[in-house]
Write a structure and sequence with these properties.
mainly beta, Immunoglobulin-like, seven-stranded antiparallel β-sheet, five-stranded mixed β-sheet, 50% strand
């Protein structure tokens, strides 16, 4: 069972990043290039699920926390701690969250991001495809490197007849102002 949960109000930003990973500048010389760093400022290798391109940074992950919204909606200086879901029993609901930072702004100071979201079954067939879903539109108060939650959140619960195995989530985070597409990918095992 799938559900697309749109966040109606603008996504809140977080200065500290999820799972103690923060986005920071590499150096003054490369101010347009973002890199992922840990809480101590040490570079963290990028993965398929956590990447940056042309200054835009994005991350997609799956959490089993039913209270993800409460964890996110805390003061900006509070680092939310999410439980990452790697193995999911059928009937247990998980949530697919997409985070971003440093979108390019238009002449009016506003960001415009869209997402293509795909959920693939273990055989590679599509369980869900959403194209050009609005992810974020508007001003980005605070530092551009603050993490923000994109508007679409996917709720998933495997039904009894859903195939067990590795399910793949692909998100193409599209910065329309910068004309940049950042592909992100993660997976979970449906038991």
């Amino acid at each position: 069972m799938l559900g697309l949960l749109n966040i109606r109000k603008p996504p809140r930003m977080k200065t500290p990043a999820i799972c103690l990973i923060a986005l920071a500048l590499m150096s003054a010389a490369s101010a347009q290039t973002a890199v992922w760093k840990d809480k101590d400022g040490n570079p963290v290798p990028e993965t398929e699920a956590r990447r940056s391109l042309n200054g835009l940074a994005g991350s997609v992950f799956i959490t089993s926390d039913a209270d993800w919204r409460e964890k996110w909606n805390t003061p900006a200086q509070t680092t939310p701690q999410f439980t990452e879901a790697k193995s999911v029993p059928k009937g247990k609901q998980v949530f697919i969250l997409t985070l971003f930072a440093n979108p390019k702004l238009d002449a009016g100071g506003k960001a415009d991001l869209a997402c293509d979201i795909d959920l693939l079954k273990p055989d590679g067939s599509s369980a869900m495809h959403q194209a050009d879903v609005m992810c974020y539109q508007g001003a980005t108060p605070g530092s551009p490197y603050n993490m923000r939650l994109s508007a679409p959140v996917i709720g998933f619960s495997g039904d009894a007849d859903d195939p067990a195995g590795v399910w793949t989530v692909r998100v193409a985070l599209k910065d329309k102002v910068a004309n940049t597409v950042l592909p992100l990918k993660t997976s979970f095992i449906l038991e």
